[in-house]
Amino acid sequence: MTASLSDIDDFSIEDFTKAYGEGTLSPVEVLAHKSALMDEAEPVLHAMAKRYDRQESTIQAAKASEERWRRGEALGALDGVPLTIKENVNVVGEVTTWGSKSFADSEPATLNSPVYDLLNATGCITLGKTAMPEWGMLSSGVSTDHPTTCNAWNADWNPGGSSAGAGTASAAGYSPVNFGSDIGGSVRLPASWNGAVGLKPTFGRIPVDPPYYGRSIGIMGRRFDDIGTTLNLTSQPDWRDPYSLPTAAQGWLDTQRQLKDIRIGLLLDAGAGAPVTPEVRQAVSNAAALFEQAGAHVEILEPFVGDSIDLIDLFWRAVHYKDYVNLPENGKAVMLPFISEWCLAGSAITSAEAVRGSDEQLALAKRTLTATKDVDFILSPVSPDVTYPVDWPMPSNDVEHAMSHIAFCLPYNMSGQPAASVNCGFSSDGKPIGLQIAGQRFDEAGVIWMSKLYEDIKPAEAVVTSWPRIWEKPSA
């Protein structure tokens, strides 16, 4: 072999398949290397909820991939490529705990989630499940079921969530693509705060089970080429998801457009939630200015979110209060107090308030589509601020304002529009800042094109020149 194992933590999917095809690297060697990497990094990062890398079935899958490549019969672009899935992906025979000890005694899954079956058909090597926070309802890595997940740049920083482990794994180099899910920013927030890239596709693009209005399977990593390649292989309808879309023409990486023809809406004030900090506002404004200088037409969008965040939060609390009261007493006793308090607030919500909150999801969808109908893409912050202390469950650290940070992300979950996160700079104390690029429904190709274009034109101070390896640093 001639490919250096020391380099493969930054390999793209194309790098892996090229090396496999040339015989300079094998899936078996890559699996062993990734196991060693996680052995070193996990005591610091805690990105993995469940590891598959040393299971006999995974080792045999790597050997089978190696043999396919040797015979020239690889299954495609993901054959032998390492990747991760999120903790809430159902796998037959496993209990899906959703990051909480309160579900530890649940029945094992009897049906795989669609994305797990789709990925298995590619010949990829699934390293395991990445960690998520309690019930998946926190923008952090705080959980009662496993140690708190840390940000890959600094163990004292929060990774965001709920796809916390996937964001950390992306920045740490566990794999080129890491699957998450997103109902209010759960892919884009950890991508932003870990300096990685992430895409929440059009609602229904990748089938999800259990399905829920606004929930999308998303992908994180270091490169949009890898996201586009993986989207090609996981985008198709599935009977388990009543919202899944027909298979689309899959030229996610083939878009050729002229920037002079592009209309961009710039949203710096969502009209709800926490205020945007000056550093975040400046970084996003600078990104918009670059597009304008390159020929695009940029116009300011007026705030359109209104009181949707609070109303939808009420609905979510009512829904989860139902789940809470159905728990056995020992399940309630082991829950994170923040989530218990958040759920218990649902007991005071009237049926009329709950219905109003439910209706607000559609109302926000319509306002978002109306506000953005005359532009091709929308630029905004992913989050109004950079990351925060690792042990805080939410950026506000306040259960009464738990969702104050999702005003820029949630609208595109409700409207179904694709939205990406790409790093656009760093704060004065070195924390990554995420730029959100959203597009019209079904235009993932355009969002990926815009995101890649920004990465080509962004200034040096917004470029990740080296990825962190904080587990190699001696303790203070």
Which keywords apply here?
35% helix; 11-stranded mixed sheet; 11 strands; alpha/beta; globular; 476 residues
Strand content: 5-15%
Q: Which class of secondary structure composition applies to the elements?
A: alpha/beta
Mean pLDDT: 96
Rg, rounded, reads 21 Å
Show unreliable segments: none
Query: What would the principal axes of the Cα set say about the shape?
Result: globular
* H/E element order: HHEHEHEHEHEEHEHEHHHHEHEEH
- Number of H/I helices: 14
- How far apart the termini lie comes to 38 Å
In short:
The protein has 476 residues and is of the alpha/beta class. The protein contains 14 helices and eleven strands. The mean pLDDT is 96.
Question: What topology emerges from the helices and strands here?
Answer:
Layout lengths: L12 H10 L4 H19 L2 E4 L4 H16 L10 E5 L27 H7 L4 E6 L33 H9 L4 E6 L5 H6 L3 E4 L15 E6 L2 H11 L28 E4 L11 H16 L3 E4 L7 H18 L3 H5 L3 H8 L6 H22 L4 E5 L28 H6 L3 E8 L5 E8 L4 H14 L19
Parallel strand pairs: 2-3, 2-4, 7-8, 7-9
Antiparallel strand pairs: 1-3, 4-6, 5-6, 5-10, 9-11, 10-11
